[in-house]
Design a protein that fits this description.
397 residues, Rossmann fold, 18 helices
């Protein structure tokens, strides 16, 4: 008896010898490989200043032995040439780079810290990291923008989600800030019944998927394929990562932007110097924050984030790189915790948030606004940082 003719239109015949599951597996592997290639081609994430600093630092592999990493307080306060000059006067040869960025999440700093360790090369000797508190929830008004997506690799996403869940179990719990958009969507209504920690953790995993699938990063991949660098990269290289607020403001004024945010902050500070002095008096006696209220969402809860710094310390030791934690002359966090930092981390902790010990750093004439130093103040701070660091080296010998 002749065999029945095959039906080329049947699912089994179309699937071929691999079968449906096999083809699905091959497709999935191909898709994953394509995503990996696209990630490698794309220009560094974070956009703007963050992407430019990553791009320059990766290209300058081995050029810098000293890196500072922190918020805008470090970005606007560390002048590499001043630090290197003061270090040389103390007998230390240094080539430094300012990796300060504006308004980072602490876990974003952790991501960048590990990138610095990976890309710094064998010449990297030390990294100064600003002490900065952790905000488990991303500012709901800034969710899913490139700046908050790029650092959500798997390790940092798990870390962020874990902190959100732990914060929810802490005394007082975690307060969830509702986003203005999507508040009444079906998913938003369903999530409202979940604990705050779970809602924040879910948002971090959503950011991870956005990053993994390159959602919204088509232009970044195209720029990478074309070999085009960030428009800010050349400027980053010129100042080795530093740009004073005065120069930034002057650039905007020259473009006719008389009402830019820097100019408004400067004017506000000049018109409210008495309020600044009152905040300064409180800083001498209380655990307070000041200087950030104009650009940080005050309702975001802050936590110590000590575990993040402990992870940085371990990673630095494994790489043979020295970690130095710096408390900037911008605000006071928890003086009790600050006193414990050196013991808990086993690294030098340089504390500049003391108006009595460093009165010049709090002189309003050396400030651009209440939270940031002027260019003259930044040069003073850079020299003081070098001197304090050299003192720690002498003390350890």
């Amino acid at each position: 008896m002749n065999a029945a003719p095959s039906n080329p239109y049947s699912p089994a015949e179309r699937a071929g010898p691999l079968g449906v599951l096999g083809r699905l597996a091959v497709f999935s592997m191909g898709f994953a490989l394509a995503l990996a290639l696209y990630h490698s081609w794309a220009v560094p994430g974070g956009g703007g200043l963050v992407g430019a600093k990553q791009e320059h630092f990766a290209r300058a592999r081995g050029r810098y032995d000293t890196v500072v990493l922190g918020t805008s307080h470090f970005y606007r306060s560390f002048v590499p040439e001043e630090f290197d000059r003061a270090a040389a006067e103390g007998g230390l040869s240094s080539s430094s780079f300012n990796f300060g960025i504006q308004l980072p999440n602490l876990i974003e700093l952790d991501y960048l810290f590990h990138r610095v360790l990976e890309q710094g090369g064998e010449g990297l000797q030390r990294v100064f990291v600003q002490y900065y508190e952790l905000t488990p929830q991303i500012d709901p008004n800034q969710a899913f923008i490139e700046r908050n997506v790029y650092w959500h690799d798997w390790a940092r996403t798990r870390l962020a989600a874990g902190f959100a869940l732990a914060a929810d179990r802490s005394p007082g719990g975690l307060r969830y800030l509702e986003p203005s958009r999507g508040k009444y969507s079906a998913l938003g209504v369903l999530q409202r019944w979940a604990p705050a920690g779970w809602r924040v953790a879910i948002e971090h995993y959503q950011h991870f998927l956005t990053r993994a699938l390159l959602i919204g990063r088509g232009r970044a991949v195209a720029r990478g394929l074309l070999g085009r660098e960030s428009g800010l990269t050349a400027g980053v290289a010129q100042g080795r990562g530093y740009l004073s607020l005065e120069e930034e403001n002057q650039r905007l004024l020259a473009r006719g932007l008389d009402e830019n945010s820097y100019q408004r902050r400067r004017q506000h500070f000049l018109e409210n110097r008495d309020a600044y002095q009152r905040s300064l008096e409180a800083l001498r006696t209380e655990e307070v924050h000041f200087g950030d209220e104009e650009w940080m969402l005050a309702d975001l809860q802050r936590f110590a984030g000590l575990e993040v710094y402990q992870g940085m310390a371990r990673a630095a030791r494994e790489r043979g790189v020295e970690l130095i934690v710096v408390v900037m002359p911008a605000n006071s966090c928890s003086r009790v915790l600050e006193a414990r930092l050196a013991v808990e981390l086993g690294v030098p902790v340089l504390r500049f948030n003391d108006p009595d010990r460093y009165p010049d750093l709090y002189d309003p004439d050396l400030r651009f606004d209440s939270g940031h130093l002027s260019d003259e103040g930044a040069r003073l701070f850079s020299r003081l940082l070098a001197q304090r660091y050299l003192e720690t080296r002498e003390g350890s010998q």
